[in-house]
Structure formats: C-alpha cells, structure tokens
Amino acid sequence: MLSYRHSFHAGNPADVVKHLVLAQTLQHMVKKDKPFDYIDTHSGAGFFAIDNADMQKTQEFNDGIAKLWQYQGDVDALADYVALIKGMNESAQLRHYPGSPKVAEHYLRKQDKGWFFELHPQDLKLLQKNMAGKRSLRVKDENGFKGLLALVPPLSRRACVLMDPPYEVKSDYEKAVDTFIKAHQRFSTGTYLLWYPVVDRSRIDRLEQRFIDSGIRNIQLFELATQGDSEERGMTASGIIAINPPYTLKATMQQVLPELVKVLSEQDGFYRCEQLVDE
User: Fold this and answer.
1) Active-site residue numbers?
2) Cis omega before residue 153 (within 30°)?
3) Angle in degrees, CA 111, 184, 276, rounded to 5
4) Among 20, 64, 73, 264, which is disulfide-ready with 81 (CB 3.0 to 4.6 Å)?
C-alpha cells in the first residue's frame, strides 16, 4: 500500500517530538570524530513547503511548529529545535518544514553516510531531488524494513536508525518490532529510534511489552499526548521508543516534554518519559 504521504502531516506535534529526539541524538553522535551511518527506513519526501496543497488541506503544522515558531521559553533543547527549523527557512516567516532526511543532513559530516529508503513513487522523486548533491547520501527505492537488515552491522560500527512507518497496514507494528529485534541481534551497539502513533492504546501497550520481553537492554520511551486517549479522536499522541539512546537524552526530554504539553496540548494532554528497560 503506497497511499500514505507525510506531506499531509508535516510539522505537526508528532513531528516536533520525533525530530527533536532525532536532532538531540545526532548532535550527540557528532561529538566524536569517528564516522557513523544514519539509516532512515521510511524517509518520505524530506522537505515540505507550507503552501503545498497537502499541508494546506490539513494544516496540522498549525498545531505543531507554528505554535513554537516564536518560542521564548528557557528549555534549551526546544529552543535549539526551533532554531534548526528557522535555519531552513529563508525569511523570518515559516515557509518550509524539514522531514527527517533534511534534519539528518544538517548533522551528517563528510565522513558520515546517510541511507534513505522510500517506496512511494512521487515522494521518491522529491526525496532524490531534496537529497541530491552529496555522494555520502544514498536514496534507495527499496523496502526500508529489509533495507535496514541489509545494512547492519555497518562498516563504521556506529549508527543511528530512525524507523517511521506509516502504520496504514496494522502488521507494521509487529514488523517494526521484529525488524528492530533482528537488527539488534546483528548490531547491538547501534542507536535505534522507533516512532509510533497512539490511536489504539492497547496496541501500543502490546508493542511496548514486546520490547520489554525482547531481551534488549537500555530502552527508553518519550511520548507527547496532545489529548487524552480516545479511539474516537484518531491519533491523540505519538512517541519514540529509543534503544541505546544518548546518556543525556532522558534528562533532556524530562525538560522538553512538560513544556510541549503546555504549548501544544489540550487540557487533558500529558507526557511520558520512561526507562522501559534498564541498561
């Protein structure tokens, strides 16, 4: 199924959390000179214009990045995220929003490699255009689940993996966990980030339990709910499950998430910042 396009959802609260976690992770990884690989299993187009018809149709960015555009708070990581997005706009106005490929490109150095997988034919063309010009960045017209397993362990022996499936097919929840478990068996020291939507809380409970039962150590969870759980509302929350996260990430998110609840959530919104499995 290739109907999902992230352009309808770019810049929404789910993107804010996902890209802030990604930025914090990559910022940590570039502190060492040693090269690393970045693997993005479901890349999308990579860069979005706010006046695009898809974004204007849903206007989900108004509930996310637009509310943060003039952020003047004292949470440094959140201010850094806003500055990152502003740096990808030519003017003081919000004109563009980067997908995860562009966020990653900002941090990747000459010695690092970027691998970007996308199957949707239109988004693939846009991704190829948006990521053109650097030999170290490779766009693949391949299944990202299989693509990840073909790349681990990387030659660099350092990697950050972001998996962000559309979850249009319900089996993606199981497939995502299965793929991460297999990848971890081959390459246990990599950092793995799995984004998930909360539409049915019981499904997320099962997903978490599978990670807890997997035998993998050092797993954290970061979640922002803009509304209370309700299957009638569609997606009310989203989060990241992180394996081998930077040692600084949990403390950072303990500051970021309460601030995001204040700025982005309704009265019944909440956050979770948890160590699912100890180191």
Assistant:
1) 164
2) yes
3) 110
4) 20
Structural domain containing residue 194: 6-209
Inside any domain, residue 241? no
Buried b (16+ CB within 10 A) or exposed e, 1-16: eeebbbbbbbbbbbbb
Q: Give the span between the Cα atoms of 195 and 272, in whole angstroms.
A: 14
Asked if residues 74 and 68 have their Cβ atoms less than 8 Å apart, the reply is no
CA distances from 209 to 89, 174, 276 (A): 40, 12, 9
Rg (CA), the chain: 17
The number of folded domains in the chain is 1
pLDDT by position in tens, the chain (length 279): 467 788 899 999 999 999 999 999 999 999 999 999 999 999 999 999 999 999 999 999 999 999 999 999 999 999 999 999 999 999 899 999 999 999 999 999 999 999 999 999 999 999 999 999 889 999 999 999 999 999 999 999 999 999 999 998 999 999 999 999 999 999 999 999 999 999 999 999 999 999 999 999 999 999 999 999 987 778 999 999 999 999 999 999 999 999 999 999 999 999 999 999 999
User: What is the 3-state secondary structure of 192-224?
Assistant: EEEEEEECCHHHHHHHHHHHHHCCCCCEEEEEE
Task: Locate 136 and state its tokens.
Answer: 């170290």
Give the annotated binding-site residues for S-adenosyl-L-methionine: 19, 42, 100, 118, 143-144, 164
Indicate which CATH number applies to the domain containing 106: 3.40.50.150
Chain centroid to CA 11:
12
Q: Is residue 106 part of a domain?
A: yes
Residue 123 lies in a domain: yes
Phi, then psi, of 55 in degrees rounded to 5: -65, -35
